[in-house]
Amino acid sequence: MSEQTDFLSVRGLTKHYVQRGIGRRQTVHALDDVSFTVARGETVGLVGESGSGKTTIGRAILRLIEPTAGQVLLDGTDVTALSPRALRRFRKRMQYVFQDPYASLSPRMTIGEILTEGLVLQGVRGREKRRQMALDALASVDLPADALDRYAFEFSGGQRQRIGIARALVLEPELIVADEPVSALDVSVQAQTINLLRSLQQRNNLTMLFISHDLGVVEYVCDRIIVLFLGRIMEIASSETLLKAPRHPYTRALISAVPGLDPDADRSGQQVLQGDIPNPANPPSGCVFRTRCPHAIDRCAAEVPPLEEVEPGHFKACIRDV
Amino acid sequence: MPLSPMTEPMAAPPADAAPEPTLRVDGLKVGFGGSQTRLIAVEDISLHISPGRTLALVGESGSGKSVTSLAVIRLLAARGRIVSGRIALRDKAGAVRDLVELDEPALEAVRGNDLGMIFQEPMTSLNPVLTVGEQIAEPIRIHMGLSRRAAMQRAIEMLDRVGIPGAAERARQYPHEFSGGMRQRVTIAIALACDPVLLLADEPTTALDVTVQMQILNLLRSLQQQQGMAMLFVTHNFGVVAEIAHDVSVMYAGQIVEHGTVRQVLKTPRHPYTRGLLACVPQLGTASEHKKQATPLFSIPGMVPSLRDMPRGCRFAARCVHAEARCREATPALETTDTGNIARCIRWNEI
Q1: Could you tell me which residue ranges the ABC transporter domain spans (chain A) (predicted)?
Q2: Bridge-based pairing state of the strands A43-47 and A224-229
Q3: I need a surface site. Which of A87, A123, A310, B267 has the fewest CB within 10 A?
């Protein structure tokens, strides 16, 4: 993984929150020492359950939250070292699509205002030019031009999510972080949105981080998948390899837990994980997954398993070979 | 399971229907708003569930699946009203009562007793200022007349039965001390505390992570085997349907558009909407093929019609690739198809 080909490079990204209660103080480990790279034009999925840190990674990369430690390099620029002023200019190159299409659009602004606000902030001059850029963005998400003068409430959930995508695209960013962009949508609309994202990706050579808890959706959208658990990377592989030949026990359990559509499927080999996701304020020592892992041994508690390359491009953080 | 004639409301069950259904809904129609702005949310809903069986009501937002389940427990919001129909529940004593006819005190004797319910968000259905033990014991005291001490003992047994370790200590804790999956187990313990004949479950695993969802589905399945209750399971997720249900009714725009056993509906769907919905679901392990061939994921064009502006004829016609002029003329009746499914489509035989 050389410096030149890595468009996005995340190194040792860590985010801790300090919680102060009455007479106690605890550190929540939202993200611990996460490193990965993304090539230009690649779509990488961040998958995990609640508390896995997938959203924290997305937000920390754009510095919507400040990481506790670690570096984010985008096209060679250290995003974590930018001054507030430089960061604002730099945000033109990286944009975010939010999960909830109802909460993420202002009810008091027209779609035109929503789409051009970023352009104004980025100093794009000329009202007509901004309007034209907004129209182009709308067209790229298959919405009609008359949407520009309407308000968010006039649109369905799926259309709103396309407006959210258009808002990210209007600045012609190089990196898009899409945080559960289809999770709030019904399946028929979800499929439309997935197809849209795939075509945009190909047309604009976008680099995308796609955050989702839904492995099926991630497999469709992403070239590579990063599986997270409790703030740490468990496994990285191409979508095809990850689904067909997962190496980490957590990935296997996650795949096994997704209910399929075949009522006659043989469930005898199904692994049902026991227990709950551990408390991130008090994560298990060593491997964070060991308390739920059917293969855990004493050594798993002693050391944090390093993320090791088991095959070219396939990484896992597990000391057991199971 | 023999399919009773759903198209003929109030018809007697066929002679070979072995156990009497626990729940039998006939011709249910629910409206919202005053007489001026009456909107019909669901209509012509007929279904039945036998003891030990699970019927899944599946559909997208606005299909009417939750309205149907709320109507069954008579918990519609203030402006919602059952316009017509019958909701017959065979209670613990074997007596059949029409819930539509019952007044509020009579309903209170049924809810939590003959009828248990669990909802999507476990935190909002639990009381934050009562211990979970007290919350499980409450219906036991009210409906079964047990003493405080005996009710608490049964509450602890219920906690144990739903797989909460250290039940006796956990019973003294408050909901905030439980994780999401554990809270849902608590609501299941409350719902099943009085050994109901019917459990209504409205998207009970939607707010949970997949590994926890699987635990809860397995738990519900094993509890059903132990207690033999009938279950009405509302969900939007066909994967969950395949996992938990015996029978399925697919809803679209306030009507049931297809019904059958889970195998019939998932393997040989006959209604174009059911077929479309199943094709929209990204299935694990199939994407790589799609990507290689550059085929898009199937999607249904357009969106669900508004209640205020329901089209004439088949409500799915505007989004259906097989629609013809005659589809828009009259509401299609539910017809029994070659595979035994019941489908609300006049062209099921041609497509």
Answers
A1: 8-255
A2: parallel
A3: A123
Residue B159 has pLDDT above 90, yes or no: yes
Burial (CB count within 10 angstroms: exposed 0-12, middle 13-18, buried 19+), residue B145: exposed
- Beta pairing partners, A77: A74
Q: Which residues of A touch B180 (CB under 8 A)?
A: 50, 276
- Percentage of chain B modeled with pLDDT above 70: 94
Structural domains of chain B, ranges and CATH numbers in brackets: 23-245 (3.40.50.300), 265-281+297-351 (no CATH)
Helix (H, G, I), strand (E, B) or coil at A58: helix
Query: Under an 8 A CB cutoff, do A259 and B239 touch?
Result: yes
Using the predicted structure, report yes or no on whether residue B1 has a pLDDT greater than 50: no
pLDDT confidence band for B285 (50 / 70 / 90): confident
Contact in structure between B27 and B85 (CB atoms under 8 Å): yes
Contact B207, B121 (CB under 8 A): yes
B250, B68 contact by CB (below 8 A): no
Residue A194 C-alpha, separation from nearest chain B C-alpha, in angstroms: 8
pLDDT in tens, B260-282: 999 999 999 999 999 999 999 88
Chain A residues 235-254 with CB within 8 Å of chain B: 239-240, 243-244, 253-254
User: Which CATH number fits the domain that encloses residue A19?
Assistant: 3.40.50.300
Report A:155-174 residues touching B (Cβ under 8 A): 156-158
For residue range B190-200, what is the model confidence (pLDDT) as tens digits? 999 999 999 99
Number of domains in chain A: 1
Residue reference for tokens 């979508």: A239
